[in-house]
DNA sequence: TGTGTTTCCTTTGATGTCCAACTAATTCTT
DNA sequence: AAGAATTAGTTGGACATCAAAGGAAACACA
């Protein structure tokens, strides 16, 4: 099987691990991974806008709304509409929310973080760089296509 | 901010890209990423068991059940209980299902695959290896902990 | 001022995803 | 052979996630 498929399998393992970590957080700590990330964002910048959070953690605004609904229902965060521009919504932490973020665990598995820190500096960088590269290769949706065809070898035509 | 967080951000980008690809597939082709992967698995081994599929693509059996429900409802796959061991369920593709898998697109973005193939052999390998390493670092949940304490530096005790 | 566009957020509807609990069937013990 | 433990799969409930559609408000510009 091709390297491409191996990559996909490894990717699925990682995605699953992240998801399981989220479930684990939810169970032992009461907040899922995304909820935690959202709250950390709010903490860093009280009054942050929905859109901003979405961009920061790479989720759609719809998803953030969804998450905020739950946080608000549990009195961990609150939304306040701007008076100057009533389209905008500033998000804040409640006292309970602040307390929760204080003693929050890490979004990634503790033991992953431990191991990651045990790696040599250059290995860490290399790992980050590879992941970023994959991300970039995946989400640049529009660029490329025609411009590249004249340059490179048209290596194989499939089927 | 730490490398660890950079990694998390890149990871979220990748996860999102995979998810968006899935939505895109669903829209243009009628099957989501996971559905497609499940069907490819069935194609390769007709009569495959639910558990096997789950292991192959790194999802829980519950999720596979869920996906199979939909596939069966759309007459793309069917389940047949084993007669010798009635706990077991063999999964097969219907004629429609076979046809669908035939002209199915790739689970990953076409342009990602293209770019990936443009990389040099060693770069591809390196990319796969890194991803596998991350996966391994994340999902070895049980190992470590106590066995390591006597050897290494007890770096920090938390709270 | 009025109409059209853009921006920001929310709602709706569909998947995916898991765990925990459950049923059914098989195998192991004594 | 009866009861216990294990295995296979499903169900129920909760979140995450998105696109598309739907307001509401602000802006733009004639």
TrEMBL record, chains A, B:
GO molecular function: DNA binding; DNA-binding transcription factor activity
Domain HTH marR-type: 4-136
Highest taxon listed in the record's lineage: Bacteria
Keyword Transferase carried by entry: no
SMART domains with a match to the protein in the record: HTH_MARR
Keyword Transcription regulation: yes
Keywords: DNA-binding, Transcription, Transcription regulation
PANTHER family, alphabetized: TRANSCRIPTIONAL REGULATOR, MARR, TRANSCRIPTIONAL REPRESSOR OF EMRAB OPERON
Protein name per the record: MarR family transcriptional regulator
């Amino acid at each position: 099987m091709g390297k491409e498929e191996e990559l996909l399998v490894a990717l699925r393992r990682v995605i699953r691990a992240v998801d399981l970590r989220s479930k684990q957080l939810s169970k032992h700590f009461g907040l899922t991974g995304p909820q935690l990330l959202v709250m950390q964002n709010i903490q860093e910048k009280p009054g942050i806008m929905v859109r901003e959070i979405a961009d920061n953690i790479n989720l759609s605004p719809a998803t953030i709304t969804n998450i905020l609904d739950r946080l608000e229902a549990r009195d961990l965060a609150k939304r306040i509409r701007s008076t100057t521009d009533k389209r905008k919504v500033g998000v804040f932490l409640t006292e309970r929310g602040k307390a929760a973020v204080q003693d929050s665990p890490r979004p990634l598995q503790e033991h992953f973080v431990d191991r990651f820190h045990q790696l040599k500096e250059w290995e860490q960088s290399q790992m980050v760089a590879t992941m970023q590269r994959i991300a970039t290769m995946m989400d640049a949706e529009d660029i490329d296509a025609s411009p590249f065809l004249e340059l490179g070898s048209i290596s194989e035509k499939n089927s």
